[in-house]
Structures are given as C-alpha cells and as structure tokens.
Design a protein that fits this description.
Nuclear Transport Factor 2, Chain: A, Elastase, domain 1, 5 domains, 13 helices, disordered C terminus, metalloprotease, metal-binding, metal ion binding, protease, Peptidase_M4_C_domain
C-alpha cells in the first residue's frame, strides 16, 4: 500500500494552502490503502504545525527532517508566542508543538531530564522520550529559549512509531537476572567488584528495526586485568542479548608532557603536616568537595589504586607528575574558557590512576575516572605524558555527562572526535600540526602520530563522507570515521578570523546544548552552526566558516541548484504561467523547502487532467482554484507517478503545486503535463430533475446497476451527486463515458458535486468489497450542454429510493 507514515510536508510558507479542506468535486486520484486517511490527516496536521512556525517566524524558520521517522529533527524560528521562563512554560510550549512530531501527549511521552541557563542567559530544557513511563533509548528533544525568553529551537530525536507498536512493557526478567545475562555475555561472571553495575528498563530499536523492552545494563570493572565498560541491551521478556556496546574509550589524542619527557612541573599537592598527598585542593571545585587526585595501580589492575604520597613534596614519578599536572590544566581550560566546573559541571572529583597493568599500551575513561598505562617503551611511552591524551580522556567524561553520544557508528565517531578536538585545543601547541599521539607514540620514530586532524588520510582515515568506512568493527569505526568531523573542525579553526578559543566555544556549546545521544554527522553540523549563530550572530565569520567547514568534508554540502527556468515560483502569487495545455514542463525541487507553482486558465468547464511523471524522489501534486482552495491532490508513495483528474464546473484560473514529500529534493527533473479545456464551445447547460440511488446502505460484495443518462445530440452531459458515502479506499463508484471508458473513480465521503464527461452519455456504478459498507449515493439532477434545448433524455434504470 502507498500510505506515507506520519510525515509532514517539507514545505514552509506554502503549507498555509496545503491544509485547506478538499473542495467540492475533488477526485480520488489514487486508491488509498489501509491507514491512508490517518496518514494523510497526520501529514496535514503536521504540515499545519510547520506552517504556523513559518508564519510566526516571518520567513526566517528552518526545518530539517529525520527521513527515517518522517518527523523533524531540527526546527528553528518562533516556535511559540509564549515566553519560556521555567519548566512549566517549557511543557506548555512542547504541547503546542506536539503535532510536529506526531505526539499524542507531552505529559505521557516526554520526561524533563535537564534544564539549565548558560552564560548567554539562554535556557535549555532536555526531554527524554518515554513510552508508558519507560525511556526510549537514544531519543531526546531539546527546547531552547534565547536571552529574551523567546522559544527559538526544538531539536533532537523523537520516534513516533514506538507508541503504535503495541510493545508489551511488562518485564518477565528481574533486573538481577538481566545483570547475570549481561555478565555472562561479556565474560564478567566471576568479577566480584564493579565500579558501575546497574540495570534499567528501556525501549530499544534494534539494527533490524524491531522494538524491544530491554534492560540497559551498564557494567564497569577492572578486576579481570583489562578495562571493561559495557552497555548491554538484554531483552526483558526472554533474556536474549539484543545488542551490546563496548564503551571503554581508549585514547584517541596525545600530546606533550614535561614529566615523562624529562621536565619538572610545579604541582598542587595536599599537606597533612607530616606527608604530602598528590591531591590538588586549589581549584574552584574544592568549595563543593571536588579535588584532583592521582593514584598508582602499581602495575596491577585494582582501581583507583593507592593515592600517591611524598615525605618531602618532591615527586620522582614522571607518569604521575604529568597525569596530575595535566588534569589541572584540563580543569582550568574547561573552567576558565568554557565556564564548566569539572567533567560533570558539578565540581566532581577528577581521579586518575597511573601505572595500570604492565606495559599497558593504552589509556581510557571507565565511566568514573581516567586510567593510564605505561606503554611498552617501543610503541608507546607513558600515556599520561601527553596533555591531549589527558584532555581527551577527561573530555569523554564531559561528553558522557552532556550529549552522552552513543559509542557506536556516527555518534561514536563524534564522541571520539570531540575528545580529539578538546584535547588538541587544551594542548595548544604554537606550531600545532593537529596530530594525535605524536608525543607518546613510537618514541624512536620522530614525526609520526596515531592520527592527523589536518590530514586524516595520512593515517588511513577518511576526510570526507565520500570515503566513509562502513564497518562493524571498532563499534562501527568510531576511531576511523572520526577523521571526518576532525577534518571539519580543522577547516573551521584554521579559517582566517576564527580564533582557537572561539572555535572551542562553538564545539563545546554544540555538544552541551544541541547534541543528543543519537546525533549523526549531519546533526553535529547543524548543532555547530546553531552554536556559532548563538554566540556570534547569523552573519558572523564563525557561522560562515563552520558551514563551509562541514560542506568541505561532504556533510550537508549544498548541491549547486539546477537551472530551473520556471523559478522563482515558490508561492501561488509567483506561479509560473500560464502553462499550455498538453505541454510537458521539466522542473526541479532543488531543496527541502522548495515548492513549485504553475497556473493556467481554462476556456470552459470540463476535465482538468494533471500528471507528474519521471519522479526522481517522492513528490506530490496538488490542484487549487484562484482563491487558494485545494480542489484535489495525488500523494502516492515513492517515485510512483502522480495524477489528478478534476471535473471543473466552470472556466477559470487554476493552479498546480509540486512539492517534495518530507523535504525530498533532487538535481534531476520531474515532468509536469496539464490538459484542460482550451476552447469555449457554443451552447448552454440545461438541467433536468432526475433521481437514482443505490440501496441505503448498500451491501457487502455489491455490484450495483449501471445508472446511465443519455441526451442525444448533447456535446457534454453531467450527473449531480447530492450525497456520496462509500468505504474509503475499498468501495468505488466509477464514472464512464459513452464508449465505456472510466473517466473518474470516487471513494470515501464527498460533499455534493457535479461530474461531467464529453459526449451524450454518462453512467455511474458502485462496487463494494466483502466487508464494511456505507450509505451509498444519491443523484438528484442531470445536465446536458447543447446549442439548443433537446428532447427529454433517457435515464435507466431508476433504482427505488430506500431508507429515506
């Protein structure tokens, strides 16, 4: 069937017309399948919501779409006339905009998780989608207000399909059983101590698009000699493992550290009177109990290990010196440059452990702290010797407490990239080549690195979406594909006029204010553009630079618009025409907001046939009268051609509109042809009172008699349906001409209307399927067109009127 699932039109100002009710005489241009009416209702309901934003925003709105779900993932403009000052206002504004997302009730489907006011005095309210009170994994919506309290954006991910799946939300497994299943699957059954061990119910959409009630099990431990930090999705009904994500986030950026490289640093320590602890209590977070603490695992795997101490405040442990000192540098950067108080923005203690395991070639964030190996001396030296490594690992903690980017595929690559970016910004080398790992990687090989942000391809990573690596390894290539957003940031930060500090502010604001767990590269693009707009203005150097930065790596790069000879024709007032009957017009829908209008004038009443063919994407076709009233539409799915056959009762000016469904657009042309009456015949319409009816109601599997009207000598004849009700999409009334050709096919409920055919004979016949009936139809008048009055016409058979 051709129903389009709960998707709004990706048209903005033109939607004011798209929501008009169907006028008299409209035709069912294509048979609707089960649920089509509801899908259409939702489409126009959603379209009306977008139109309201468009009207209130006075042309400055932006609507981007989640093509997989058919709902927006970014809406900016004036999303409400109400001021946004608190959580109560936020809930009311989200309720105002629920139709955008096919939401039944904000109170039932969203839960406010985070609200904040930043240093720009803008407010942010982050909602978690829930189904029957259970979180829907990865789906959040964020509402923003500007410094004036005006609601300006709603962005994120919401899944309208969840509520129609009928998922059983009663778990058969207990949380304890789910924990056991997760431990068994990850090989952690014998572990006695976990730093994180919890199981919470979630709704989860698997890779095959099936929905599951799951326990989201989080496990973090170091007891089995190697770090383990897992998200395991355990089906709450049968205990199967739906998916699992390895979240041990190993170092993806490295830098210089004087301790490991032989230089001495000044350290902030804690004096007890007799000894000194490697504990920094000088930072602002100390006012709420936060500290920077450095431990040693003594080449073991117990965390956090032993707090390092000294009798004389002289420290002879280079790895510890760097870990401790660099943690302070990272804290200072976030606090002084970005206004963030520790990784959790709540002054949380920053712990790090050095000398983890033996010759351990990595560093990682385990959900609670940073951990550094010593390296094997050949491939790596001590990982804490790189400032960007320390910045990278702590930044994983920042990401986890903000956007919480899911550590797989594109969202995981963004997770890695954002840590690369922040690590390099914190490192701040004066001659920075934007390398990753150059100071601690292969100490005997100068000039090499793990990765390059300026030239990712030098280390085998892609620098453009054209070379995106599709793989299931490394959680979907999170380290490899991070080269694409890394290159985008490099493009941005090296643009003349963009400072490192301002670039960091944009990336940080995008992460903390606009990105969600499911953010993809395109979402990161929009998030950074919006963040730059917030900070520096829509016409700023930064906005232009960040837009070009993403365009140049193939993320959201605009395709040069085709040479469309009919533009500008984006509104009814600027419609192209008049177009010639029978001529093909090859036009383009070149963007998600493009819409094409054409106009023509008929010389007589009669049939208007419009066809839209050669479709590169899912386009739809609409017919309007001069007053802007929608008369008919054709909204088939996919690239199926669209067609409209409308019986016009009088000559006049008409308009056809072509739109891309849910923002569909292409550089390939469509073909539009309209056939309409061009010559006014000589004669007059004459009307006669005639009556013929179906049974009221008609029966199942019904094939009615042919109701036929003939007026010998007439050039046109017509029937007037005073009442018309059939089962929509299943029971049809076919209108034929003298040759027996079906000219129109009607279904559903129609207002009173005329239908005309050329020639001297017209007939109607109802057929129904095997289930569900309706009232049927009643015809009370007939008409003919002739130069002179003719003798009484023939009507046969006249079916007895029933049920009146």
């Amino acid at each position: 069937m051709n129903n389009k699932r709960w998707t709004a039109l990706a048209v903005v100002s033109a939607l004011v017309f798209a929501v008009a009710t169907t006028g008299a005489g409209s035709t069912s241009a294509s048979a609707a399948g089960v649920g089509k009416d509801k899908a259409i209702d939702m489409k126009f309901k959603q379209g009306s919501a977008v139109a309201k934003v468009a009207a209130d925003s006075k042309g400055k709105e932006k609507v981007l779409w989640n093509d997989k779900k058919g709902v927006p993932n970014f809406v900016s403009g004036k999303v409400s006339a109400k001021k946004l000052n608190n959580a109560s206002d936020a809930s009311q504004i989200m309720e105002e905009n629920k139709d955008l997302f096919d939401m039944s009730s904000v109170a039932d489907e969203l839960k406010l998780d985070v609200q904040s006011t930043d240093n720009l005095n803008t407010k942010m309210f982050k909602y978690q989608q829930v189904y029957k009170g259970i979180p829907v994994f990865g789906n959040q919506l964020i509402l923003h207000a500007d410094k004036n309290g005006d609601a300006t954006t709603i962005n994120g991910y919401y899944d309208p399909e969840v509520k129609v799946k009928g998922l059983n939300t009663k778990a058969k497994l207990s949380s304890t059983q789910a924990l056991q299943a997760a431990k068994k699957d990850t090989g952690l059954t014998d572990v006695q101590h976990f730093d994180i061990e919890k199981a919470d119910l979630n709704i989860y959409q698997a890779q095959d698009n099936s929905y599951h009630l799951v326990y989201l099990v989080e496990l973090s431990t170091l007891e089995n000699d190697s770090p383990a930090y897992w998200d395991v999705f355990v089906d709450a009904h049968d205990g199967s493992i739906v998916n699992k994500i390895d979240k041990v986030e190993f170092a993806a950026a490295v830098g210089s550290g004087k301790g490991v490289l032989g230089d001495t640093k000044s350290l902030n320590t804690e004096s007890t009177g007799t000894t000194y602890n490697m504990r920094d209590i000088t930072k602002p977070m100390y006012s709420t109990g936060g500290k920077i603490e450095t431990y040693t695992a003594k080449n073991g795997t117990t965390l956090p290990g032993t707090l390092l101490t000294s009798n004389d405040n002289t420290w002879n442990d280079p790895a510890a010196v760097d870990a401790h000192y660099y943690a302070g540098v990272v804290y200072d950067y976030y606090y002084n440059k970005l206004g963030r108080n520790s990784f959790d923005n709540a002054g949380g203690t920053m712990k790090q452990t050095v000398h983890y395991s033996t010759k351990y070639n990595n560093a990682f964030w385990n959900g609670t702290q940073m951990v550094y190996g010593d390296g094997d001396g050949t491939t790596f030296i001590a990982f804490s010797g790189g400032l960007d490594v320390v910045g990278h690992e702590i930044s994983h903690g920042v990401t986890e407490r903000t956007a919480n980017l899911t550590y797989s595929y594109q969202s995981g690559a963004l997770n890695e990239s954002w840590s690369d970016v922040m690590g390099n910004l914190i490192e701040n080398k004066p001659d920075d080549l934007w390398l990753v790992g150059e100071d601690i990687y292969t100490p005997n090989t100068p000039g090499d690195a793990l990765r390059s942000m300026s030239n990712p391809t030098a280390y085998g990573d892609p620098d453009n979406m054209a070379n995106y690596v599709n793989t299931s390894s490394d959680n979907g290539g999170v380290h490899t594909n991070s080269g694409i957003p890394n290159k985008a940031f490099y493009n941005f930060v090296t643009t003349p006029g963009v400072t490192r500090d301002n670039a960091g502010k944009v990336w940080y604001r995008a992460l903390t204010q606009y990105m969600t767990a499911s953010s993809q590269f395109s979402d990161a693009r929009q998030a950074t553009i919006q963040a730059a707009t917030d900070l520096f203005g829509a016409n700023s150097t930064e906005v232009t630079a960040v837009t070009n930065a993403w365009n140049n790596v193939g993320v959201g790069a605009p395709v040069p618009p085709p040479n469309d000879p009919y533009e500008p024709n984006d509104t009814q007032a600027t419609a192209y025409g008049p177009i010639t009957s029978g001529t093909a017009y090859n036009g383009y829908i070149s963007s998600s907001s493009d819409v094409d209008w054409f106009k023509f004038t008929t010389a007589d009443s009669g049939t208007i046939n419009a066809s839209l063919t050669n479709l590169p994407k899912d386009y739809d076709l609409y017919l309007y009268d001069a007053a802007g009233t929608q008369l008919s539409k054709s909204i088939n799915g996919g690239t199926t051609s669209e067609s409209i056959a409308y019986s016009a009762s009088a000559p006049g000016t008409y308009y056809v509109k072509v739109i891309g469904y849910s923002g569909a657009n292409s550089t390939s042309a469509y073909s539009l042809t309209v056939n309409y009456p061009t010559v006014a015949p000589v004669g007059t319409w004459y009307y006669e009172t005639k009556a013929f009816d179906t049974p009221h109601p008609y029966t199942n599997s019904y094939t009615g008699p042919v109701h036929s009207y003939t007026k010998t000598g007439a050039t046109k004849v017509g029937l007037h349906f005073s009442r018309f009700e059939t089962e929509s999409g299943y029971d049809f009334v076919k209108i034929k001409d003298k040759a027996g050709t079906v000219k129109y096919s009607y279904s559903g409920t129609q207002a009173a209307f005329w239908v005309y055919v050329d020639g001297d004979t017209i007939s109607s016949q109802l057929t129904s399927d095997a289930s569900v009936t309706a009232w049927g139809y009643s015809i009370d008048q007939v008409a003919y067109f002739s130069a002179t009055p003719l003798v009484t016409g023939t009507v046969s058979p006249v079916y007895p009127i029933q049920g009146l």
